[in-house]
Specification:
- The protein is α+β, with helices and mostly antiparallel strands.
- Helix content is 30%, strand content 27%.
- Strands 1, 2, 5, 6 and 7 form a five-stranded antiparallel β-sheet that branches.
- Strand 9 and strand 10 form a beta hairpin.
- The radius of gyration is 17 Å and the shape is globular.
Length: 212
């Protein structure tokens, strides 16, 4: 992975950043899924990283935070150019800033970002939806708005990792995509084998991106 583009979510006092994460990442996820289907491959050539991913202490517990930046990596400059993030994310042009394509620095550190499957997720989501329906009736907001606020601001009982609320490209259902950061001790030859979320495939240790 020699080239990358950085996307920053711009602060907006009227829009929850978690909501923008959902819009941004759902768009990327659906596009990566289309690329999978179009070429018949099991993996995508694009990997993502979260350069502001950090662990924080809150009320005596350690939680991870995604921050407000996302980098999309590819092996070639042409691949990123053809991905055309500016056009892909045009609906979010007022809320995100996309930098030009750049080369990965030589001193960059290899890392992996993987999906983490939290336990008891279905039960917790069902409970959150009931609360969201109740809040919607009391506040006048839509159930969707209430659900976004609940799922994005309240940590999962079984997991302290950050997550993004996504719409599945196959079922259309909403789910929490928990993201785990992992350092790479002995990097092998970097392979472009990432999931349709842009995350490192669990079965391939050679799928990694970079921090710098």
């Amino acid at each position: 992975m020699k080239y990358y583009q950085e996307i920053s979510i711009l602060p907006d006092p009227e829009i929850n950043s978690y909501f923008l994460w959902t819009k941004l990442y759902t768009t990327l996820h659906h596009h990566f899924a289309k690329l999978h289907k179009a070429c018949g491959a099991q993996h995508t050539q694009f990997g993502v990283s979260f350069p502001e991913y950090v662990y924080e202490e809150k009320n005596g517990k350690i939680f991870a935070n995604l921050g407000a930046k996302l980098r999309v990596f590819a092996k070639t400059e042409q691949a990123l150019s053809e991905l055309n993030l500016a056009q892909l994310l045009s609906a979010l042009s007022d809320y995100v800033h996309i930098k030009s394509i750049r080369e990965v620095p030589e001193d960059a550190i290899p890392v992996r970002f993987k999906r983490y499957h939290a336990k008891g997720l279905q039960r917790i989501e069902k409970h959150q939806r009931r609360i969201a329906d109740f809040l919607a009736r009391k506040s006048g907001k839509t159930a969707e708005e209430c659900l976004q606020n609940l799922l994005a601001s309240k940590p999962n009982a079984d997991c302290n990792l950050p997550y993004i609320l996504l719409n599945s490209s196959s079922t259309g259902h909403k789910f929490q995509l928990f993201i785990q950061r992992e350092e790479v001790d002995k990097p092998q030859d970097n392979q472009s084998q990432f999931s349709c979320y842009g995350l490192s495939s669990l079965e391939y240790d050679s799928s990694f991106v970079y921090e710098f």
